[in-house]
Task: structure prediction
Amino acid sequence: MATNNVAQIHGFGQSIWLDFIDREIISSGKLKQLIDVDGVDGVTSNPAIFEKAISSSSDYDANIAALKCERDNEKLFFEIAVKINKH
Result:
């Protein structure tokens, strides 16, 4: 069986981290596959990555609707990015 590229990189003592996260990759099992099968070591994120995840899909629409009374966009963002994504 051929060694995948990530496994080859591990052979050089390097770790591979995914610089992307959203609900779909978690709920679909794709993140687990990337870790278990492909050898990804971890995930990193930042506000721009969360903003893209929130704005590019309908995955967060229910959370936004539930928080619609929050008029401060920064507070709304942190409520979704930090508290709701915690699980």
